[in-house]
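Lab manual, section 2.4: Encoding a predicted structure.

Procedure: take the sequence of the chain (242 residues), apply the prediction step described in section 2.3, and record the output as structure tokens. A sample record is shown.
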Amino acid sequence: MKNFFYLLSLTLLVSSCQISENITINDDGSGTIEMTENRHEPSYMRLVGEQYGKEDFYKDSTYVFSDYIKKYNYNFIKFTPIEQTLFSRYKDVVVHIKKSSFDKQYKTTFISHFTKVENIPDLYKTVDYADDLENNYALTAEKHYYRVSYSYDNSVFKRIVTMTNPDEQNIQKAEMEAAKAKYGNLGFVQTYQLTYNFPRKIKSVSNSSAIISENKKALSITFPLSDCIANPEITQLEVVLE
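Recorded output:
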């Protein structure tokens, strides 16, 4: 499910996928982010019909991004210092890929630990950058039409979405509208969920759809995936803590 959020084929989109982004922030501002892309099997089965039972593939692998930097160092040193610094932001990202027609599981998980929120990498670009290192490509991830970043000053947390390619965004919008028109009545499960855990109680959230936990230290928001692809800005968020 490589580049699911940026280089989607229409078939993969309508086959239904669930994406989750989970962040836990500790008292000292450090923490963990985990992002998962998971194919929703019942929806995918309805899409492909009898071909579902004929699939035959298996992959179960885990790598740390720094392994790519070491293994393909002969390519890494060809990049500019700025590009090398960019790659280094991803060095601690752990990627686990599980694709099994036997287990009926198609899932990719990205995990990264951070010392401060501002250092969280844009995980949606991880696979692209790994491919760039392996094949000595130009930075293909920079062709994405937006980027995600975060900030935190111990009182206010922000999820920031910056649009970088309006033309590509318009293309994505058109594809999403076409997909909805063609497949919208089939009831596919396509969700994008943000779940954040904070060291103190939440005072306010910019998105009124957020569900706050009983202890008021965590929240979750679920969006339709197609809406997030067409308009990534809807996932921006500001959380004020007590």
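Check your result against the sample. The longest helix spans residues 166-183.
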